[in-house]
Amino acid sequence: MRRAQFVLVGLLGCMAGMGGNCTSEPPTFGSTDDDTTETASALVIITEVMANPHRVADQDGEWFEIYNPGTDDVDLVGWTISDGGGAEFTIEDDELIIPGGSYAVLGVNDKTEDNGGVTLDFVYPDDFTLGNSGDSIIIEDAGGTLVDAVSYGNAPDGASLSLDPSKYDPVANDDEASFCATRFTRMPGGDLGTPGALNDACILEASPGDLVITEIMSYPLAEIGEWGKFVEIFNTTSEAIRLDGWIMADGAGDQLTFSSDGALVVPSGGYVVIGAHFETTENGGVDIDYSWGNTLVLNETTDTLTLSADGTVVDTVTYGAGGFPAMTEGVSLQLDPGAIDASANDEGANWCLSVTEMSSGEKGTPGAENSSCT
Ligand SMILES: [Ca+2]
Ligand SMILES: [Ca+2]
Ligand SMILES: [Ca+2]
Ligand SMILES: [Ca+2]
């Protein structure tokens, strides 16, 4: 049985940092594409390919990632992997077992000082190369049955080709629209990729109200000043939300694009607190999860905060106008816990001044539930 292969082209101009999705030039499918042979039971799937590293040489920095979507271990000993140029290797002496829900990274050079900082699970011979302007990776099990295969056209320069995490499926990963150049996460060497870890999203899927701004400290005590400003954000959905690539803008149009290598996550039913400064000795003792530094300047008394993901406005709040309580020095503005909703928080009547004293003497509940306004 030979599984369908797909062809990715037109990705060269689609580098991370340019925004948008990476399929603006439609790829061309190979004539061999035949989804009738696809099943959803593949033991492993190819999730990421670094064919064209930029900051290290190709002969050191090429690798690809495979993922075990099942729950049982998959033992790859005896499996053969070939490329489009006819090179192949068999996993023999080196044991390679991938636990369920885990990744393995196979690459050409395991010296992290030379390969861009990638920790490999398996080192393949250096005649196995990943072409920059098109190649294939074909995985066959010990019985010679094709497990997964990909073919790509042009490989992005300095970023891996990355399967969208919502498409971790042996059928979906034959669809060209399921891949993009890694958008946000940098490896230690500086190129973009997520070897051995969940891939970046290709498109940030978000709906209005998924995240809601629940608390705003725009007017810290004078002795704390600008560094004491913070904003609390609540996740109303049943899934954790990674904020990489999301944007927080203020009323002046300054934009903060979150970039945390996957570290900044809003738990389902939980909070993150973003603020001007990490140092609790400088910011009034507030534990923040992410610093906006000098990127945003919240006006003390009135401003507009807008949180968006790939063009979808998820929440916006204009405080200090339209029936909002007047901002008071050293006191945060908090949303009533019964009004955690992107529309309800447009109404000033659903906000009130915090009453809970913090270590600095200011009042607020950063990262914790607000008290009732009624
Ligand atoms: Ca290459
Ligand atoms: Ca990955
Ligand atoms: Ca709103
Ligand atoms: Ca709070």
Major sheet: arrangement of strands:
8-7-2-1-11-12
Fraction in helix: under 10%
Compressed to H and E, one letter per element, the order equals EHEEEEEEEEEEEEEEEEEEHEEEEE
Question: Rg from C-alpha positions?
Answer: 24 Å
CATH topology-level name of the largest domain: Immunoglobulin-like
The hetero molecules present are: calcium ion
Tertiary shape = elongated
Please give the alpha-carbon distance between the first and last residues. 66 Å
Number of strands: 24
Largest sheet: 6 strands, mixed
For the record, what CATH class of the largest domain applies? Mainly Beta
Number of domains: 2
Report the CATH superfamily of the largest domain.
Lamin Tail domain
- Based on the coordinates given, report the CATH architecture of the largest domain: Sandwich
